[in-house]
Amino acid sequence: MRAILVLEDGTVFEGESLGAPGHACGEVVFNTGMTGYQEILTDPSYAGQIVTLTYPLVGNYGINADDFESCRVQVEGFIVREAADVPSNWRALQSLHQFLKERQVVGIKGVDTRALTRRLRVRGVMMGTISTEETPEQALARLRTLPGYEGIDFARRVTTEAPYRWVPGARAPIPVGEQEDVPRSPDVRFRVALIDCGVKYNILRNLAALGCETTVYPCTVSAAEILRDNPDGVMLSPGPGDPSQLGYVVDTVRRLVGHKPIMGVCLGNQIVGYAFGARTYKLKFGHRGSNHPVKDLETGRVYITSQNHGYAVDPDGLRDGMEVAHINLNDGTVEGLQHRELPIFTIQYHPEASPGPTDSRYFFSKFVQNMERARR
Amino acid sequence: MPRDTTIQKVLLIGSGPIVIGQAAEFDYAGAQACRALREEGISVVLINSNPATIMTDTEMADRVYIEPLNVEFAERVIARERPDGLLPTLGGQTGLNLATQLSDAGILEKYNVRLLGTPLSAIRQAEDREAFRELMRQIGEPVPESWIVTEEWQLEEPAGAGIWPLIVRPAYTLGGTGGGVAHNPDELYEIARKGLALSMRHQVMVERYLVGWKEIEYEVMRDANDTAITVCNMENLDPMGVHTGDSIVVAPSQTLSDKEYQMLRTASLKIIRALGIEGGCNVQLALDPHSFAYYVIEVNPRVSRSSALASKATGYPIARVSAKIATGLHLDEIENAVTRKTLACFEPALDYCVVKIPRWPFDKFVLADRRISTQMKATGEVMAIDRSFEAALMKAIRSLEVGVYGLSNKTVPQMSDIQLEEAIRVPNDERLWAIAEGFRRGMMLEEIHALSNIDPWFLRKLQHLVSLETRLKLNGKAIARMAARLLQDTRESATPATENTGTEHHLIARLLREAKQAGFSDRTIAEFAEVPELQIRALRKRLEIVPIYKMVDTCAAEFEAATPYYYSCYDREDE
Amino acid sequence: MREGNVKKKILVIGSGPIRIGQGIEFDYCSVHCVWALREAGYEALIINNNPETVSTDFDTSDRLYFDPLTLEDVLNVIDREQPEGVIVQFGGQTAINLARPLHEAGVRIIGSSNESIDLAEDRDRFEKVLRELGIPKPAGRGVVSMEAAEQVAEEIGYPVLVRPSYVLGGRAMEIVYSREELQRYMEYAVDVSPRAPILIDKYILGKEVEVDVICDGRECLLPGIMEHIERAGVHSGDSMAVYPPQSLSPHLIEQIVHSATRLALRLEVRGLLNIQFVVDSQTDTALVLEANPRASRTVPYLSKITGVPMVKIATHIMLGRTLQEQGYRGGLYPDSPSIAVKAPVFSFLKLHRVDINLGPEMKSTGEIMGVDTDYPRALYKAMVASGIDVPTEGSLVATIADPDKPEALPIIQGFAELGFRVFATEGTARFLQEHGIPAQAVKKLHEGEDNIEHLIRSGQISLLLNTLSTNKRIEREAARIRRASVEAGVPCLTSLDTARALLLALSARARGEPFALATVDEYLHAPGSLKGSALHG
């Protein structure tokens, strides 16, 4: 079946339908990672976005049961050059097409994704729509009636409705309430409160691997509620959308500062940035991929990181002891913050990887150490 | 850290003559190194016995010696030139061996020459298999069951272990000279004897042979500040058992999920750090196609053929960056010469598929044993880049210059079914064509997979090409008709007059575009249509099916690139 | 040279994968051509598909096209770039083979025209040119049937050199000694090229000589002459060669220069032409074997040892400059004060079932060069550099064909005088003993245990001297013996010329004569100071 991709600026790409028929609309962004499409599709940070992969051969290893980063597909739409009809991998359960179709996700294949990427690089990310049933003119007209990306609080859309727990040894979340029947694992060394703006399961898995039981709260949770539960530390999750929409989370964080060790990831970095006086700005085409070099300003060492963000922290307003600790080597943007005294640090990229390099996993250990110290 | 200014003059050792296992890649590496060093204001002294190289041009190095590559002459060059440092890792195994000999003979110490880049101890640890295994055990990286054999009687243990087949690899040789796969004690003794005779150390390794496991390579870089990156990973189409120099290789890997990719990447970085390599290094791993189990196979602690391939496949100049690292620079202090905007400290993102096919000398040595295994036989290789695996493969095939322009050759159609199965089962230079012929004769994909152990993903691509070939053959006459009609009168519009011809027109135009996107050559299509090649070309142009060119930019278009490095493809946007 | 600010573009065709017969030399040539073009103010584009090379490095050319070297792919690049023209002289046979189809597709070939290339490559047309110029060639002609083949062979007399007409570079070439062998060859060769004729030439047992000519249409510069150390019949790429020639008479050199010059002018070469001669020692004439209208394998060697930047000069000629404008004159360039020996390197260890004996089919994968102030020393360096574990003492085993025995005598004698212990197969041993050389007989293969193969494999032998026999049974055994020598790492010499040269080198070493050590520039410019100077370390 024929499908089209129409961008806000009127550019039209023709291709064939992938996944479900119909239409999808969102901010069109590109990711340069060469593997990890299943993780990308299910990463809540892509809410409201149509993702294109620059690597042309997608779906080669299919979809498996383990590599979900949330319980649903989060992208609005998916754009690829070529999708493998039949996957080849020992864990594969279904093909990319079957999966997208089953989950009602509209995609398009056969697109010159490099041309698309170049356009986004030059003009910046913009809204776009995939359609299997409209003419380009119809699709563009529809696109123009829809709201843009910036004005929406996507965190509230993707956050959990009710708190849940992730305990060491678990493969899936356990709703709070049912938990009382579950015997507490002797492996639990720390209890973490996670404010969910769009968490990826691999953060929970990594924490669990280090002996942390994590309670995941909706992003609207209050500081008082968290302090009442008295966790060892607070984790701010990644998430989609414009951080300037999230004043209420920033407020929560301000109230937690000084009480608990805090680690912020991605959107969490931006929220902590706001809490310490900084603002954020939108990047022209964001950082999305598995190959971004980040320098640790303290050691001078460089790490290859997994990234997915469209906004960056402007360090100018930073105050109250918060400092820039990591920078991106490609464009010099802020990639992490560290408080001079308090056990608070944040990173703009993804220590949980999934997809991407696992070089930065050590941050979870650092967080655990902070919690350990705070206990003493 | 800025570059070490105590290094003013550096000796580079070339790789000598082209032999199987050591081709032009070290001229490429040496030439890059010369430039990289001179950019830093370092004077370069070069010794190589092969003058048919760019690196031995007086434009490339300050002092060029075309003298034999042995200790005697190298010592005299050192005595005369008194270099501050010696960069041993860019001249292939020849250069590395000579550097080792110079060090062992006390010559480097005598003349106060420092070894730059990777320390010799790390090279030894990587090349001495027992030391390497010990290190792997220490850092918890798995290595296959194996035995070190220096005397024939030591073969008793592996011969009695009952884990056939076993693979025999001699230590300290070029391109795996003298290795082989043994299926029984007799073969084991025969192969091991030869290997012992050939090893510089009189040492061979007998190892569990991982039948059907995927062979994956990572090209990794590390600097003195312990920053380590992977430049590229590559997947061998031929599973374990075929020397990587004799394998069809694709970049990046195609059948690995992100979890597998990252698991092996993490292992590779762990290894380069444990060895303390400063520069480039190649890590070969075997991955079980049915689980997350993997083994570390070997490490090349230097710039290699694989790194030349990885450099061209990604645009990342490994030799150049290795040379810079050897002068003390850190990865984040070296410019990415391709984008000139970013730094050498990043991992290239590919937005295309690369296929390498070895070039074997069997056209000259018609009587030679054409089977390929752990002992490299190819003299050279070709590489092709395209947006799909199919097209990259087809382009690589016609780059070989063996009189073959697609998936048919002269010999496989002559084979009996039994011979064909054998040619699919036992790796040989014609296996690719034998597989295509197998599909033509109606063999099932599963059957071919069972015979060859080649991943079904690759086989499906070959099957796709064969089915396209069938459609082209079936439509050969229609293609010829259309060519005749459209080319007869150049004024006639490319849109057809009647409805009947209209349908045919659109179908054929679509088929041609599909065929070109899959890499079929005009010549092959012309054979099916029984028209001259140039008629297909003219027809294509009439139908506006023309290639466009895309850039190799190391970053999948994320940044604007300055380097003019292009490949053709039948995609939409021309750059 | 420029139109406005837009540089003119020229496309250079690369040489593809490294293979036997087409090695790294052509990448060297392609890169130098690109450099010369850029220096001359052109935009230099290159197309190649070999990832191992400098030519495919991202900063070698103005634009690199990583694509196949077929007509289709090259035309596609031309369609896009619309270059002034295409240079095909530097990418070996790969590039030159594209000259005609590109020309027919309307592409301008820069340098020697398609017509000129065809004249040199088409055997019939080439022979006509030779006849017209009165330049001698070995007797022989093309045939299409067995009957005609026999007839020609009878006419010119065995042995004959047979090969298919359409391939150059020694593919499927063979020396044939008898009618039976000719029959066998014809059956095999017909398989190789169904419609093309088979060429049958008189096989001349003489030295081959190779020259590269740089021609601007008016004058011809010959940077140097390379004389092969092995006699004709060994492919030029497998033969050791020396520059400048060591045994050619001034008369012969003059003849070679004269013939080469006239031939290049007649072929209207613009750029490079490689000519191979064989010297008929009986008449002291140089006969033309073949001409290649392109840069040859020897270009980088000669460029480095003579200091003449051959590719650069040739490229400038293609762009319209003359030799004179570049500061060169026609004729043979003055000999360099140093001697260079080019030696082949083989990879036989890697290839099972390949016989290592050398013949008209090329088998080496690479080459090296030894340079010094005299011939024996340069030869010694070449041997060492080519990986031969040159023995200075030990045991030698000789198995010499009857016709070669007299010639082998003084050579073996020389080795014996250097202290080598001599083993030989029975016939050879008897012959040597009769002539006063103490030789110990060893058993042939079929004579049972403790035979020559065992001796070689036992590690007691440091050198094997084996000349080829025309007797098939002996040859089959000899092939096994040579294979054993490869596997045992024992150097094997199949040509008496090489053996003689090695003897010279070893004698020099035995006398304790020092070897030079100098940079490429010093070998060119300061020859006087090399002898007996500090350079000898």
Task: Describe what you observe in this structure.
The complex is a heterotrimer of chains A (about 375), B (about 575) and C (about 525). Chain A has helices at about 35-40, 95-100, 115-125, 135-145, 155-160, 200-210, 225-230, 245-255, 265-275, 360-375, and strands spanning about 1-5, 10-20, 25-30, 50-55, 55-60, 75-80, 80-85, 105-110, 125-130, 165, 175, 190-195, 210-220, 235, 260-265, 280-295, 300-315, 320-330, 335-340, 345. Chain A has about 375 residues and is an alpha/beta fold. In chain A, helix 8 crosses helix 9. Chain B is of the alpha+beta class and about 575 residues long. Among the domains of chain B are: about 10-115, Rossmann fold (3-Layer(aba) Sandwich); about 145-210, ATP-grasp fold, A domain (Dna Ligase, domain 1, 2-Layer Sandwich), CATH 3.30.1490.20; about 410-550, Orthogonal Bundle (Carbamoyl Phosphate Synthetase, Chain A, domain 4). The longest helix of chain B has 19 residues, at about 455-475. Chain B starts with 8 loop residues before the first strand and ends in a 6-residue tail after the last strand. Chain C has 4 domains: about 10-110, Rossmann fold; about 140-200, ATP-grasp fold, A domain (Dna Ligase, domain 1, 2-Layer Sandwich), CATH 3.30.1490; about 205-335, ATP-grasp fold, B domain (D-amino Acid Aminotransferase, Chain A, domain 1); about 385-510, Methylglyoxal synthase-like domain (Rossmann fold). Chain C has 19 helices and 23 strands. In chain C, the strands form 4 sheets. In chain C, strands 10, 11, 12, 13, 14, 15, 16, 17 and 18 form a 9-stranded mixed beta sheet that branches. Chain C is globular, with a radius of gyration of 24 Å. Chains in contact: A-B, B-C. Chains B and C meet through helix 1, strand 3, helix 2, helix 8 and helix 10 of B and helix 1, strand 3, helix 2, helix 10 and strand 18 of C. Strand 18 of chain B pairs parallel with strand 3 of chain C, so a sheet runs across the interface.
